[in-house]
Design goal:
Elements: H1 2-10, H2 14-35, H3 38-54, H4 59-69, H5 76-105, H6 112-150, H7 156-178, H8 193-214
Length: about 220
Amino acid sequence: MEIVDEFCDLLQSHANRDKVVALTSYILKLWGTTSNRQELLTASTRFAATRATLRLFDDAGALKVLYTYGLGKHEGPWWGALGVTNSVFTLTFLQAEKLQWLLDTGVLKVNDEIAYKIRTAHKLFWSLSAFLGFIRSIRTVHLSAQQLKEKATKCAPARFTQATLTSTKYFLDIIHLVNWLPKGWLWGSSIKTTHAAAIATTSGILGLVMHYHGKRLLPQ
């Protein structure tokens, strides 16, 4: 019963539910590509479409993050500008995703060239947001490593582990997302589907590990 309660608690928030849906989609895709079963790939696509539909309502959360962060003056001119840019890229990605969703549902009808640009912009800004998130996470790893060395707090080891997990997940996300870009854009469309699914699955597992490990950092 404790496991059921834990799973119910996990699904209470949108962010955690997204992690579960994402991991399910990636596992099905990996399973489908390795076993050559089309029905599993279809199920994976359905879960991915569900994520995209739910993200239509993510603007409020992204705007709240941007408003709370402000101009990032507390982090200095360089890191503050990077933080603001990261939020702007995330918002831009969400708008491009709305357009792509309208294309996929047939509500928006444009020529093939414009549709291609919309889909490319969607993947590009998603990749850029992940890249800036990765750069910022490296700084967090550095700061938490200093705290660990100085033994400033009892939770310093847990903070360092969480920062390392975050950076690793961002790194895997970048590899996966850039692969969705058209051929000729870095390593776009160059990774085999099975390998890309394995990378995405690993990232999804890390997302849940980070969730439960992060609970150790909450006030008791």
